[in-house]
From TrEMBL:
Alphabetized PROSITE patterns for the sequence: HTH_ARAC_FAMILY_2
Protein name: Transcriptional regulator, AraC family
Pfam families named in the record: AraC_binding (PF02311), HTH_18 (PF12833)
HTH araC/xylS-type domain segment(s): 189-287
Amino acid sequence: MHGAFPRLDIGTLSEYREDHIMIARFSDYRHEHQSLVFPHRHSFYHLVLFTEGRGPHTIDFHRFQAEPFQVYFMIPGQVHSWDFDEELEGYVVNFSDSFFKSFLLQPEYLDSFSFFDQDSSNNVVTLSENIRARVSGLFEELLSQNERATAWRDDIVRVLLLQIFLLIEQSDSVDRKKSAEKSKNPTVRNFIRLIDKHYDRLRLPGQYAEMLNVTPNHLNALCKEHVGRQAGELIRNRIVLEAKRLLINLDLTVSQIAYKLNFSDNSYFTKFFRKETGMTPEDFRKSPAI
């Protein structure tokens, strides 16, 4: 493991230094960015469809075995790495958080898809056989459109990406129950979105309930009904996730991480982390999970 992991922007990964979209074949992308085997996080959405080859891939400490016709959906901020011994082929698309917002009336539209999720166990989808050819064809069309310098290019790319997302979301490739749960209740969706913005400052369900104009009891009941967890647990899980992401950066001390997460002192952070994970921050740094 390296001493630090970088936060990458699209411009650093694009031949054309564009800051909103990048599309490439996976073999070309991997060849040009061979250093990306170490843990790193993106400031953009990162989408990969594998069509050939196999190998281990990790997203936020969940380890997966990449194989043909798996799609990996990663959202901004997630930490991931791969360790591929063999040649893999497929497609990779990077796009900024703002790429769709100027195009869609609903700015948070992407959040409605089950695979664009903070829980990395939902980020990997194996395509059902009946849509594989169609999805691959849409990725080929993305590559083709990306090479054209036309006034409508970006809008065509947006439409093609939305076709891919909708096709996968409505297919047998995704867990119907998880998909329905994510789109079912707007209050829970907004709560999770608020946690992602304020987890380092707001720790109590009541603080979020006030922002959502509901009572703490009602918010808790909605969370238990729709995601099977209490509101406080969702907040704590997000804090733990960010703590883990920071802990793999060995350039940061545990005390510095505690400060970044707004814990009053190192001992309080250590006590919190141990209660939630069963290990100390130092033990986590030594574990195979990273």
